[in-house]
């Protein structure tokens, strides 16, 4: 599926592909786009079922990632650093597992989905309820993760949010329906295919032993935590994020 997207910058520059999180869209990246496009060609996509993209028949990581790969290829984007936030971090990881890319930056999305299962299970009755209950579940989940994100940014993100119940439940179906052991096995199979440099940047503590767990699965992984920055560290500290991305890119180039 070809995705709705924005393409900025010059095609002769190094490529970045930006992937938003669940219920968000490509507008999430707008505060960073001008700076990034100054010396990159930047592709920001709307995942299937999000923003202006069409709905799909499946919402698993490989389906999401295949759309991103197809859209990038149609625009002549190759050898990109793939940057994903939240769900986008899982999708970026899947892109690296199924297609060549230069590197991955995963913003605040632990890959240990078995740990996510317990937290998500507490909201499952709301998320599977009527429209009002569903929206309450979404608001509870994301409201708790904003951290120090400025109120103006919170309002901007919420105004752009598209919380489609079928899309959300389809995305999280495997978390609801699989055992922790099955989730771990699925993630381990995906992670085993990632061989490119990988930066995991967390604003929320991913839990004890997470860095060691991820580095066992993805030996190229660098795991960093920016304490007290919440789920949107790249928007709480945009200059710091841009500097860190530039440093990582320089490291990748060698």
Order of helices and strands: EEHEHEHEHHHHHHEHEHH
Strand content: 5-15%
How do the strands line up in the largest sheet?
1-3-2-4-5-6-7
- Outline the low-pLDDT stretches: none
CATH topology-level name: Rossmann fold
Cα-to-Cα separation, first versus last residue: 34 Å
Largest sheet: 7 strands, mixed
Structural class: alpha/beta
Chain-averaged pLDDT: 96
Give the second-level CATH assignment, the architecture: 3-Layer(aba) Sandwich
What is the number of domains? Answer: 1
**Radius of gyration, in angstroms, nearest whole number:** 17 Å
Number of beta strands: 7
CATH class: Alpha Beta
The CATH superfamily is known as Alpha/Beta hydrolase fold, catalytic domain
Helix proportion range = 40-55%
Outline: globular
Number of helices: 12
Account of the 3D structure:
The longest helix is centred in the C-terminal third of the chain and has 16 residues. Helix 4 packs antiparallel against helix 5 and helix 4 crosses helix 9. This protein is of the alpha/beta class. Helix content is 49%, strand content 13%. The chain has one domain: Alpha/Beta hydrolase fold, catalytic domain (Rossmann fold). It has a 7-stranded mixed β-sheet with strand order 1-3-2-4-5-6-7, with helices on both faces. Strand 2, helix 1 and strand 3 form a beta-alpha-beta unit. It contains 12 helices and 7 strands.
């Amino acid at each position: 599926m070809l995705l709705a997207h924005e393409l900025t910058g010059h095609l002769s520059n190094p490529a970045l592909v930006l992937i938003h999180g669940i219920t968000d869209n490509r507008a999430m990246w707008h505060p960073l786009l001008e700076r990034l496009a100054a010396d990159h060609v930047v592709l920001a996509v709307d995942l299937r079922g999000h923003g202006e993209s069409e709905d799909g028949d499946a919402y698993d990581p490989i389906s999401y990632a295949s759309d991103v790969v197809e859209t990038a290829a149609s625009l002549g984007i190759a050898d990109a650093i793939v940057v994903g936030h939240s769900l986008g971090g899982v999708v970026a990881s899947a892109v690296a597992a199924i297609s060549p890319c230069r590197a991955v930056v995963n913003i605040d999305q632990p890959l240990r989905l078995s740990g996510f299962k317990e937290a998500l299970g507490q909201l499952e009755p709301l998320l599977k309820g009527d429209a009002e209950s569903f929206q309450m579940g979404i608001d509870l989940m994301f409201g708790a993760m904003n951290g120090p994100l400025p109120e103006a940014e919170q309002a901007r993100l919420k105004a752009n949010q598209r919380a489609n119940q079928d899309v959300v439940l389809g995305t999280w179906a495997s978390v609801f329906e699989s055992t922790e052991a099955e989730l771990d096995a699925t993630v381990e199979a995906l992670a085993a295919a990632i061989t490119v440099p990988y930066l995991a940047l967390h604003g929320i503590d991913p839990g004890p032993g997470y860095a060691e767990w991820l580095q066992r699965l993805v030996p190229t992984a660098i795991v960093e935590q920016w304490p007290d920055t919440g789920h949107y560290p790249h928007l709480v500290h945009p200059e710091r994020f841009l500097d860190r991305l530039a440093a990582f890119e320089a490291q990748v180039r060698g």
